[in-house]
Specification:
DUF2914 domain-containing protein; transmembrane helix; membrane; DUF2914; 46% helix; 11 helices; alpha+beta; Immunoglobulin-like; five-stranded mixed sheet
Length: 371
């Protein structure tokens, strides 16, 4: 075993880690994030479920054993000899689990609705660098663990139960609190250093604070209703359905506007309806009613006015999302948006556009696509 350890330290990888040990935890965090970005696809796929469950399990074990390394019973044991590499494992699994949330919701048309999570993720990255002990800081360890545990269960529980609503979200939160507190108590009882370094009421208070913060984000619709995601949303001139295919005719923008499909400035004739096409991703067999809420911005009152709310049921399982559309006649000039929401009024995404009635000056570039 000693010879193997010596060979490892003299290897290129071992030398690299020793030389750059100051930045190794961050590199492993980024590595986990990048690896999942390349391999994960959809939350209800067996491969994704196995990977995420494995990451969650290994992260739990890594944190548990890392906090027990100083225990005398591990002297001359495998865990004691390789314990110094456990922080790298913790960083890798934290990166992998954190990236899952970003990957699944980066599909959403409304990136702004997921901005709250990105801010939390950035905070984790910055906090990881600012803490003097970095991941060895037990408060940071357990708070980061609780956050990724909560987000993981927010995906996993609806997939297993094939149901998604506020009650399911609350159940996911309760399970994450219970499992995190169980791990903390287990480590606290088994590790003398943990009993010295953390104050129980402070640790539990931080966990409760994160729990309330995530629920506040959910209540104020700052994060999408997991695990649904708006895959596509565009404004169209005409939509027809033929042989389970949607034929959509719409305006496209200049070639350099690559971040959206449709042109925001929508030109139409006064006697023609305006269509909004969406596709919503949902896990297999999950059924949910969603709504297209048509809103027009009133320049006089400086407020959004709801003019229509059209609902239909979606069924999960299709990789590109469940397709559907709504349309509206007798629209007027101005700024419009169609919010795609659930029965609980949680926003999946927003399709923004400006309507110009009888605009004869511009020459729209119109295309027809099959979805």
């Amino acid at each position: 075993m000693k010879n193997n350890l010596l060979k490892y330290r003299e290897s290129k990888f071992g030398v690299f880690l020793i030389k750059h040990k100051k930045y190794a935890p961050l590199l492993f965090f980024v590595a986990g994030f990048t690896w999942d970005s390349l391999t994960l696809g959809r939350i209800d796929r067996l491969y994704d479920i196995v990977i995420l469950c494995t990451y969650m399990t290994l992260l739990t074990l890594s944190i548990y054993f890392y906090n027990l390394v100083d225990n005398e019973k591990w002297k001359n044991k495998f865990i004691k000899r390789y314990g110094k590499y456990l922080p790298l494992a913790i960083q890798f699994f934290l990166g992998g689990l954190s990236s899952a949330y970003v990957i699944y919701f980066s599909r959403s048309v409304s990136i702004s609705k997921t901005a709250s999570f990105f801010l939390i993720l950035i905070f984790l990255l910055i906090a990881n660098e600012l803490f003097k002990k970095r991941i060895s800081n037990k408060y940071l360890q357990f708070c980061a663990y609780f956050f990724v545990n909560f987000t993981f269960l927010s995906f996993f529980v609806p997939v297993i139960l094939k149901e998604m609503n506020t009650t399911i979200f609350m159940i996911s939160g309760a399970l994450s609190v219970a499992s995190t507190l169980f791990l903390i108590v287990l480590v606290y009882r088994s590790s003398a250093s943990t009993r010295t370094e953390i104050v129980k009421w402070k640790m539990f208070g931080m966990i409760l604070g994160i729990y309330l913060l995530i629920n506040a984000f959910y209540y104020f619709r700052l994060i999408p209703p997991v695990p649904l995601a708006l895959d596509k949303g565009l404004i169209a001139h005409n939509i027809t359905k033929k042989n389970d295919k949607y034929i959509v005719t719409y305006e496209v923008d200049d070639w350099y506007v690559f971040w959206r499909d449709h042109k925001i400035d929508f030109n139409r004739k006064s006697n023609k309806p305006v269509y909004v096409f969406t596709s919503v991703f949902a896990p297999t067999d999950l059924k949910k009613k969603i709504y297209h809420v048509w809103k027009w911005y009133n320049l006089e009152t400086k407020e959004w006015k709801t003019l229509d709310k059209i609902g239909f049921e979606i069924v999960g399982g299709r990789d590109s999302g469940y397709r559907g559309y709504s349309y509206k006649n007798n629209v007027i000039d101005g700024e419009w948006k169609v919010e795609v929401v659930t029965e609980e009024n949680l926003v999946l995404g927003v399709v923004d556009f400006n309507i110009n009635v009888n605009d004869t000056k511009s020459k729209p570039h119109i295309v027809t696509r099959i979805f």
